[in-house]
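Write out the bound-state structure for 2'-deoxyadenosine-5'-diphosphate.
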Amino acid sequence: MERTLVIIKPDGVQRGLIGDVLTRFERRGLKIVGLRLIKVDRMLAERHYAVHKGKSFYDGLVEYITSAPVVVFALEGPDAIQVTRRVVGATKSNEAAPGTIRGDLALTVGRNIIHASDSPETAAFELGLYFGAGDLIEYGKISDNWVFPG
Ligand code: DAT
Ligand code: MG
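---
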């Protein structure tokens, strides 16, 4: 089992896509183990995107993620990190495959509506940025045995 961090970015919230995005992960069988609507402040944005500091798009990225509320959530499931990245689709929305969130709902890299952790190390770091100890809930669902038996 893995856990990963997902953010519906300001454009996803403003465009009324929260339900659509959450539904895709629920239907895939991933379990939501934490969920919050927050406004990301500059300090949090800079910690989150520290790996991109110095790149040409960094300032715009921080402006964008802090511009309006976002929905952050944690997903749990087998291979959750890579499965979630594949559901999200390619960074450049114009190249994202149809059927992915970006490939269905976004057009440009600068407004690609969603973030997802890209490795186990990133997931652990980002889950810690947005959720405190005890915020993530471990629970069973009646569907568990039908989605990942054994
Ligand atoms: P991802 O969000 O797919 O993990 P990333 O970590 O490489 O992509 O970059 C983080 C965000 O930065 C990405 O969602 C959008 C923005 N970004 C990346 N490359 C960009 C570029 N060439 N021009 C503008 N924005 C870019
Ligand atoms: Mg990334």
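---
The longest helix spans residues 18-28.
The pocket of magnesium ion (ligand 2) is lined by residues 118 (CB under 6 Å).
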